[in-house]
Amino acid sequence: MRAIDVHVHPSSRGLDRDACAYFTRELSEVPSTEDQFAELFVKQQVKALLIGWHPSTVKEETRNSNDYVIDLVARYPDAFAGVLASLDVGPESFVEILKQAEALSRNPRVKGFKFHPPDQNFYPNDRKYYALWELLAAARKPVMFHTGFTVLGANQEGGKGIGLDCGRPIHLDTLARDFPQMKIIAAHPGWPWQEELIGIVTHKKNVYVDTSGYLAEQLPELFQRAIRGRLQDKALFGTDFPYIDLEQALISFEKLGLKDAVKEKILLANAHNVFGLTQE
């Protein structure tokens, strides 16, 4: 196995066409069936963690869901290593959300949880959600949060109602302080607050970061320097597929010229450590 991709959305459901346009992704290049989606990862010798979240900007497509990605992992174990489940933190009863979180935490295919604060319009360090973080921390499930800029609503009137402030990395600092036993993954380098994010990942032992949303040579220079050195044990390979092409992402990663030991950590070992994945 070449890598574990910790940040993958199924291309067979929930595809945001505006996001594809932002990344200049031709829809004809994106696998549209489940078989094609799985075959791509098997061909590249990469195992993916699939995200069960469905973006608010996709109204007409068949919805992505936790049940859907859990089923994909069951049917394509050679392609997919597990699921990052999603929860609706909006108007639904919070007691019901806690019940869903507890049930998902017991599922062995659920390796962690993923939240998108800008799209879900909430602040991770708002104390009204602390009962949820207590439950996930007790279950030893890592939690991933989108940070920084989002392509959802990008270059659209009013950003389609999505504000970026909920995705500032600084909100994870308080969370990491208050839940030191919970592993927190910042999704993306946090641009335009990459310095803020690097400071938090450096300061808090329980905070990690993935490389998703960029080809490697496009990552902010400061971020590239950090994952070469001080943060080499805290960085996880991620693509944000299907918006970033998997094969191009792997080729781009090689261009960073990382030492073999650092490369192995970011591509494989750190993900095994954070998510407790079985070594192959």
CATH class: Alpha Beta
Class by alpha and beta content: alpha/beta
The CATH topology annotation reads as TIM Barrel
* Spatial order of strands in the largest sheet: 1-2-3-4-5-6-7-8
Helix proportion of residues, in percent?
Answer: 25-40%
Strand content: 5-15%
Biggest sheet overview? 8 strands, parallel
How many DSSP-defined strands?
Answer: 8
Question: Care to give the gist of this entry?
Answer:
By secondary structure, the chain is an alpha/beta fold. The protein has 11 helices and 8 strands.
Written account of the structure:
This protein is of the alpha/beta class. The chain has one domain (3-275): TIM Barrel. It has helices spanning 17-22, 34-43, 66-75, 94-105, 117-120, 130-138, 170-178, 194-203, 221-228, 246-254, 260-275; strands at residues 3-8, 46-51, 80-85, 110-115, 143-146, 184-187, 207-210, 235-236. The protein has an 8-stranded parallel sheet with strand order 1-2-3-4-5-6-7-8. It is globular. The mean pLDDT is 95.
Q: What keyword list fits this structure?
A:
single chain, eight-stranded parallel beta sheet, alpha/beta, globular, 11 helices, 280 residues, TIM Barrel, 37% helix
SSE layout and pairing:
Layout: E1 3-8, H1 17-22, H2 34-43, E2 46-51, H3 66-75, E3 80-85, H4 94-105, E4 110-115, H5 117-120, H6 130-138, E5 143-146, H7 170-178, E6 184-187, H8 194-203, E7 207-210, H9 221-228, E8 235-236, H10 246-254, H11 260-275
Parallel strand pairs: 1-2, 2-3, 3-4, 4-5, 5-6, 6-7, 7-8
